[in-house]
Amino acid sequence: MSETGEQGLKNIMDINADMWSDGTAIKPTKDGKKYTPTLKAFTSARTFKEAQIDDPWEVEVVFGDNGKGFLDPAIVHDTETDGRIGIAYQVPGDDALPRGEVFTEMIDNFLFEVLGPQSVDPNKKVTTTWAQIKSDY
Question: Cα–Cα 20 to 30 A to 68, which of 2, 25, 32, 74?
Answer without folding.
Answer: 2
